[in-house]
């Protein structure tokens, strides 16, 4: 099979306020398919946890309906879970993030189809600035770990070169 | 400034995404080496190794110095820590996710076409 050629669309990340972060990105496909990628576990785990993160997902359960729960398990004590508050097919998803000790963010995703492509907007609202800061520390999961490992590697290597 | 650090972080990731380049960093951690040494050690052509070293140099992870006819490589002074401010991490996270999402959606599109 030929590797499909995909062009990288522009992404924006903005911290709207002390408690809000908004990410937007256009995806080259109809909202129907993008929504599928968000709501079918087999598809979702492929992109939500890219291989480059270096962590693997043990399980991914999603009961996609208002009031339904989801749970992503990376390993003992490394779970992300919450509840869907709103599910409007092909247009809007709202879910809670309940894994933190304090109240977690509420994530709102909107899918706006524009001539065969979909503008995705991911809006995270945290209960407080502290909650946002704390979540940032933990949420990147593998990402942050990877960075830490890289950093350590580089530092160790640098130290070893010094006589 | 944000864009600048973002570009640097992208460079670092690109540079470290390759096993040979990580090997080169480890090697240089033990001792400085010429491009010829490195090419031999990694069973590569000089041109191939020059490319890898170029990527590492661009990312600030390696510095090279030409003495006479020999170009010596050593580890650069740069650390990744400075770039790991939250917004960069967040951006990197989402950037990786969206790249994979592009692939998933592309596959679904192809599949629909075939099924029609």
Strand order, main sheet of chain A: write it out. Answer: 1-2-8-7-6-5-4-3
Structural shape of chain A: globular
On the 0-100 scale, what is the average pLDDT of chain A? 80
Terminal-residue CA separation of chain A:
52 Å
Mean pLDDT of chain B: 81
Kindly provide the radius of gyration of chain A, computed on alpha-carbon positions and rounded to a whole number of angstroms. Answer: 18 Å
Q: What's the oligomerization state?
A: heterodimer
**Order of helices and strands of chain B, N to C?**
HHEHHEEH
Strand content of chain B: 5-15%
Main features:
heterodimer, A: 163 residues, alpha+beta, 4 helices, 8 strands, globular, disordered N terminus, B: 116 residues, three-stranded antiparallel β-sheet, 5 helices, 3 strands, 12% strand, elongated
Topology (elements, then pairings):
The complex is a heterodimer of chains A (163) and B (116).
Chain A: E1 11-17, E2 20-27, H1 31-39, H2 41-48, E3 59-62, E4 69-75, E5 78-88, E6 92-96, E7 106-114, E8 117-125, H3 129-139, H4 142-161
Antiparallel strand pairs in A: 1-2, 2-8, 3-4, 4-5, 5-6, 6-7, 7-8
Chain B: H1 2-16, H2 19-30, E1 33-34, H3 35-41, H4 46-58, E2 62-67, E3 70-75, H5 86-115
Antiparallel strand pairs in B: 1-3, 2-3
Helix pairs in contact in B: 1-4, 3-4
């Amino acid at each position: 099979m030929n590797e499909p050629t995909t062009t990288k669309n522009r992404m924006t990340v903005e911290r709207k306020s002390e408690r809000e972060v908004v990410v937007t990105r256009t995806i080259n496909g109809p909202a129907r398919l993008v929504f599928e990628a968000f709501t079918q576990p087999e598809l979702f785990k492929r992109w939500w946890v890219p291989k480059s993160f270096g962590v693997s997902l043990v399980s991914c359960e999603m009961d996609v309906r208002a009031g339904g729960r989801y749970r992503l398990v990376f390993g003992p004590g490394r779970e992300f879970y919450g509840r869907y508050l709103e599910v409007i097919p092909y247009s809007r998803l709202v879910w809670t993030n309940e894994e933190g000790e304090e109240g977690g963010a509420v994530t709102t995703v909107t899918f706006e189809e524009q001539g065969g492509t979909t503008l995705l907007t991911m809006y995270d609202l945290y209960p407080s600035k502290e909650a946002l800061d704390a979540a940032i520390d933990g949420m990147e999961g593998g990402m942050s770990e990877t960075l830490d490992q890289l950093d350590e590697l580089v530092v160790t290597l640098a130290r070893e070169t010094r006589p | 400034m944000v864009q600048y650090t973002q570009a640097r972080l992208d460079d670092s990731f690109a540079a470290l995404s390759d096993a040979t380049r990580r090997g080169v960093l480890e090697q240089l951690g033990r001792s400085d080496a010429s491009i010829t040494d490195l090419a031999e050690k990694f069973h590569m052509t000089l041109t191939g190794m020059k490319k890898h070293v170029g990527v590492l140099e661009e990312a600030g992870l390696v510095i090279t110095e030409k003495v006479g006819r020999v170009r010596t490589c050593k580890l650069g002074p740069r650390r990744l820590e400075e770039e790991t401010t939250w917004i960069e991490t967040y951006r990197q996270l989402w950037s990786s996710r969206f790249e994979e999402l592009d692939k998933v959606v592309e596959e679904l599109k192809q599949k629909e076409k075939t099924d029609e």
